[in-house]
Every structure is written in C-alpha cells, then in structure tokens.
C-alpha cells in the first residue's frame, strides 16, 4: 500500500501496487468496526462478486477480494486516473452536448451489461461515474460502486420491500417510495 486515496462511511480506499505485475491498484477496505457485522461483510463480498460478474469496459474491474489474517476485508480493483463526474462538474459546471452524449452512452452500456445479469445499481450519481482520459485525449467513463446494488438472481436478498437505499437527490420515485426496482 502506497497511500490513502479517500475515506467514506463504510471504509477507505488506498493506492497500492500489485507486485507480481508491477501495476497500480486501488484497494477498498471495510472499516474494522464493521467486520463484526455479518450484514456489512456479506454486502462487501456481494459488491465484489456482482462487479466481477458484469465484466464490461465501462465498469470498474475487480482484480481480487478477500479477508486478511487480521480480519481486514479488502477489494482490489483497477486504479483509475482521472476524476469523478461530480468533481468535473464542480470544476466546470457545464458539459458540451458531445460530452453529455458520450458519458450517457457509456454509462447506459454499463447499466445494460449489469441489467443483463439482473443487477440493479441503485446508486447512480455523478460521484459513481469516473472520467478517464485515454492516451489519444478522449474521455472514457466507468461506473463505480456496486455496494448497494441489487442482484435479482441471488438466493438471499439483503433488502426487503419498503427499505430505501441510495442517494435521495438521484433516486427514482420508485426507489424513494421503497417499491420493487428493476433496470428501468
């Protein structure tokens, strides 16, 4: 682990290096106090499993996940250079029509791939869309954070009808009302 990149309500993200192939990776960890909660542990591993199931160029790539000997839960993923759409909008609040269409097209493709696996993201917002610059100067969008996604194929559901998860400013009316959700 080289440095801390950020911290959220459930854990931290670090910049690390995968020694075997000498590449940068982002390592997401669950806060130690949450490791004793089977619900948080199950959610953490479900996020990793769902994200690896999708395997799409517009979704972040999960490289590995597990639990260390000292009970630290981790999820290693590709390291992305660029910025979240939220930061881009804070810097420059307007996007060109071409940028809007490009980002929308790529994120719609990521969501379509998720929906083809019966996975509903449930937290689509500018913070969870990452913008990368490609070597030729173009923009490439990636969908991040499947932490509260719903897997309709799962034998065990972690939410019940009526429970509300998501970021209120970006939730659909159905999600705000606690109704059953699908890809629409």
- The mean pLDDT is 84
Largest sheet: 5 strands, antiparallel
**Strand fraction band?**
25-35%
Terminal CA distance: 39 Å
- Cα-based radius of gyration, to the nearest Å: 17 Å
Q: How are the strands ordered across the major sheet?
A: 1-2-3-5-4
Helix percent band? 25-40%
Number of helices: 4
User: Could you say which structural class the secondary elements and strand pairing correspond to?
Assistant: alpha+beta
Uncertain segments of ≥5 residues (pLDDT<50)? 155-162
Number of strands: 10
SSE order, one letter for each helix or strand: EEEHEEEHHEEEEH
What does this entry look like structurally?
By secondary structure, this protein is of the alpha+beta class. It has helices at about 40-55, 85-90, 95-115, 175; strands spanning about 5, 10-20, 25-30, 60-65, 75-80, 80-85, 120, 130-135, 140-145, 150. The chain has a 5-stranded antiparallel sheet with strand order 1-2-3-5-4, covered by helices on one side. The protein has a 3-stranded antiparallel sheet with strand order 6-8-9. A two-stranded antiparallel ribbon has the order 7-10. The longest helix is centred in the middle third of the chain and has 20 residues, at about 95-115. Residues about 155-160 have low confidence and may be disordered.
